[in-house]
Fold this protein.
Amino acid sequence: MNQIATAMTGNASFPSPTVPIATFETNITALAAAEQSTLTRVKGASATRNVKLATVRSEAEQLKAYVQVIADANPSEAESLIHSAGMAVKKVSLRNKADLAATPGPAPGTAHLVARSAGHRSAYEWAYSLDQKTWTSVPVTLQAKTDIGGLTSGTTYSFRVRPVLKTGESPWSQVVTMLVQ
């Protein structure tokens, strides 16, 4: 909290914070004193510290929202503005798992298939094809993965999966092709 107060003091990028920085610093100092008081085990010291902590957290959230508004208004400088306020940018990873992935199986002539989970109590219907017109079903599984054996090495196969939920069958996934080894 002190780093935020220090970084925002006199920072021209943040001319009028929603919480005056001097007030924020005073409340941080009061929190530190209340924390020291709890070490003496004086009756009511913990409750006092908790009130001061709630105040500092609330003010920090208000300052965070203020910094976010400034950053949103300047998207090209947003990250540097946030860092200049003594705060960190939360990195959001955009990891989109494919509906279906096919990799070589544990033995020649096998394929390992992994589907995106449809949630608890889902079953998965699997199928493979050589021409994408005639499909061969594979035993239904309760997990979003399976190994298919008995395939011809050196041949390209197409695979698809369909989750089956309590509400019914979902549509088939996009087709994934793989050269079986």
